[in-house]
Amino acid sequence: RQEQYRALRDLPSVTRDGVGIALQLNAGLLVDLSHLNETGAEGVGLFRTELQFMVAERMPSAAEQQSLYEAVFAAAGDLPVTIRTLDIGGDKILPYMKALEEENPALGWRAIRIGLDRPGLLRMQLRALLKAAGGRPLKIMFPMVATVDEFIRAKAIVDREKAHLARHGRPLPSDCRLGVMVEVPSLLFQMDEIAAAADFLSVGSNDLMQFLFAVDRENRQVANRFDPLCAAALRAFGLIAERAQAAGTPVTVCGEIGGRPLEAMALIGLGYRALSMSPASIGPVKAMVLSLDAAKIGAFLRDELAKTSDGASLRPALAAYAEAH
Ligand code: PEP
Ligand code: MG
What we know:
This protein is an alpha/beta fold. It has helices at 2-7, 34-39, 50-55, 62-76, 112-117, 119-133, 148-167, 191-197, 205-212, 220-223, 231-247, 261-269, 279-290, 294-307, 315-324; strands at residues 22-27, 44-48, 81-84, 138-142, 176-182, 200-203, 251-253, 274-277. Helix 6 (119-133) crosses helix 7 (148-167) and helix 12 packs across helix 14. This is phosphoenolpyruvate--protein phosphotransferase.
């Protein structure tokens, strides 16, 4: 199997009916970048910056942050890298940062909420990123955004940092794109506004499913109570893809779901054309893409979603489709 997947490395990721599906990597440490070459991935769709903070014994300095980002950009070469700002809190605890006592950490003070309430940390990270990018393009996205206003405020902080660097005669990124993780369900009801405000969107299916179904992503007792291929979940993913496309805003899926071939097939059927996943998933997902007809799976999925009467999982139907095609 591994050998077979390796043989696919240099083949373009295109469906049988000629639809390009960009397959990108999820990464968090510098060593993960070595998988770019190994897998033939088209860049890093999600770089989780909190990893550097989680493995450190103390808060990484501005210089340490900048040097990691420089090394990541150097390792990626001309391939794009989407950097996510610190996603701490919830299940991601920094041993050296005093944690709040919270009844519900998953719903608590975390990610962009910390960034906006204590902008010092976010500002330091953004400055490190802008400096590391130098004159090359830069893509930054913000985690756990629940309202359009939070994104607008985060964007203002980026603008301030850019102005600061410009005043000091430092080069700015040739192209600086700011995106939003779609992982809090409130964004489903602000899709047009967030798609208009952001340069790109990336669906964090791990958290989106957790919050949509009120099912703790780490709790095995409840994890199997719903299927991400049930009608409700597929409609949520479909709505995001459709509204993003209507606005002309690029959209990716970077949660674990994009790395499973059957789920990835469904996402392509819903209109997604870019998926970011762990390195081991690239081969199996690419093999699926090469054997898929994107228009046909789209029509099949629309039919199945229209005729379901109980909202049950479409997994059996999708598995049968995959088997037959
Ligand atoms: C997600 O929530 O789907 C995601 C990609 O982010 P993380 O798993 O880091 O929360
Ligand atoms: Mg998340």
